[in-house]
Amino acid sequence: MKTRVLTGITTTGTPHLGNYVGAIRPAVAASKRDDVDAFYFMADYHALIKSDDPARIERSRLEIAATWLAAGLDPQKVTFYRQSDIPEIPELTWFLTCVTAKGLLNRAHAYKASVDKNTDAGEDADAGIPAGLYMYPVLMAADILAFNANKVPVGRDQIQHIEMARDIAQRFNHIYGREFFALPEVVIEEQVATLPGLDGRKMSKSYDHTIPLFSGGQKHLRESIMRIVTDSRLPGEAKDPDSSSLFTIFRAFASENESTAFRQALIDGLGWGEAKQVLFERLEVEVAPMRESYDALIARPAVIEEILQEGAKKARAIAAPKVAELRDAIGLRSGVSVAPQANAPKAAAKGGKAARFASFRDADGSFRFRLFSSEGEELLLSRSFADPKAAGVMQKRIKELGSVAAVVQVQPQSLGLELDGEAGGATPDFESEQARDEALLRLRGALDQLAAQE
Ligand code: TRP
Q1: I want to staple 444 with a disulfide (CB 3.0 to 4.6 A). Which of 69, 237, 238, 403 is the partner?
Q2: Residues of CATH 2.30.29.80 domain(s) within the chain?
Q3: Is 44 in the pocket of ligand 1 (CB under 6 A)?
């Protein structure tokens, strides 16, 4: 079985070297593994909480998409999409909001930090805090749960959000009485390097000290490297590689051997200016070919758009049946599905046709049955039973079930009927989601007819 790995990238800002080494490169590498089914997406709804500058949001979405593709992400293998192209995510967000304890959200670090800041400044606790910031963890839970992701690689600052997603999932499962959601696990990549920025503090877009990965081109990369803060040791004086940002960045790109050689050169007195040139040239070996693809992609936004639309299609093929199943489970059903309950007894009493079972023996000798609607449509094919009695018991259980108690699994092209967590049977495949959803109503109608029969 493949592990479904999912992560989101907030689309504010321009990717820098720290993002590349800490997130993009390991994620692209993980996506190539055969045992991984990767879902990577641009969290542009989340970005709205952090930025109200439309031009910045637009630019960042484009740059981030181009960056991931240029870094080697294969959109054929990975499901790569924009959060805002998946309407099921906000819909699920609401379902989850309704089961999320407000107290849980009160305890979110990011929200609490904003409250503390206000309180310290003598302001009202919630001054200037958008409700979006407050709801951030629920939206994030929906991102993850819509796809039943198993593993979520994130930075340390996001651990609490994954814990909250588990909490919310558990609560939903508990309330609606079934394992609708797999519980996601956080993955913290311990191996990957955290790069220092120009001033030696951790490279982060919150400080103005990053080294951009592609933007500004080769020239800007070189200029940024030349601005990395060093100590004042002169050429010829021994440098301490372990306290040097230059060396830390170099090591994140180079092999063991190269790093050992660079370390020695610094100890032997290599001047900082020359050392920066060495770093620049080593970075270029990895960055230059990617920059070329990046520039080509940025010049053709329509190509990126098409890739993302394809990605959204793939993602929705999973999220849409999931949300349809949830709608059904929580009672957001078409009014039509309730009506047959009232009509069924009459229809049967008039001697008219009613839903019925037909048992048969399969080619392999096992026992099965079909459920037909009053119109003669095949609604369900049971699983096979070795024992005809067991098949009979299952028929009886289905007969007594009624539509309200029926647990229906919605698959992309079909429906499954579950009894006590066990598969009872499935519908044939349908041509479209609409056909499937219409069949769901007929299935429910038939179940009510059966339940109304003596
Ligand atoms: N909040 C995450 C961050 O800032 C981005 C994100 C949004 C995310 N949705 C997600 C990460 C779902 C993992 C899974 O880094």
Answers
A1: 403
A2: 335-453
A3: no
**46 Cα: distance to centroid of ligand 1 (angstroms):** 8
- Could you tell me the two tokens for 78? 């990975």
Q: 86 CB under 6 A from ligand 1? A: no
CB 158 near ligand 1, within 6 Å: yes
Domain with CATH 3.40.50.620 in the chain: 3-192+300-324
Q: Is 3-192+300-324 in CATH node 3.60.10.10?
A: no
The region, left, alpha or beta by phi > 0 then psi within -120 to 50, assigned to residue 61 is alpha
Quick: pLDDT tens for 381-403.
Answer: 999 999 999 999 999 999 998 88
Which structure tokens are listed for 44? Answer: 């542009």
Q: Using the atom order of ligand 1, give the atom closest to the CA of residue 149.
A: 14
Please enumerate in sequence order all residues whose Cβ is within 8 A of that of 187, keeping only pairs 6 or more positions apart, or say none: 5, 151, 152, 153, 154
Over residues 275-316, the pLDDT tens digits come to 999 999 999 999 999 999 999 999 999 999 999 999 999 999
Superfamily per CATH, domain 217-297: Tyrosyl-Transfer RNA Synthetase (1.10.240.10)
Radius of gyration of the chain (CA): 29
Q: Is 140 in the pocket of ligand 1 (CB under 6 A)?
A: yes
Task: Output the pLDDT for position 218.
Answer: 96
pLDDT, tens digit, 9 for 90 and up, residues 60-90 = 999 999 999 999 999 999 999 999 999 999 9
Q: Write the residue with the smallest CA distance to atom 11 of ligand 1.
A: 8
CATH number given to 335-453: 2.30.29.80
Which run of H or E residues covers position 368? strand 367-372
Q: Single out the residue of 5, 120, 112, 10 nearest to residue 60, CA to CA.
A: 10
15 lines ligand 1 (CB under 6 A): no
Q: Hey, which of 4, 6, 7, 84 would you mutate to test ligand 1's pocket, going by the most ligand atoms within 8 Å of its Cβ?
A: 7
**What separation in Å is there between the alpha carbon of 143 and the centre of ligand 1?**
8
Give the pLDDT band (50/70/90) at residue 13: confident
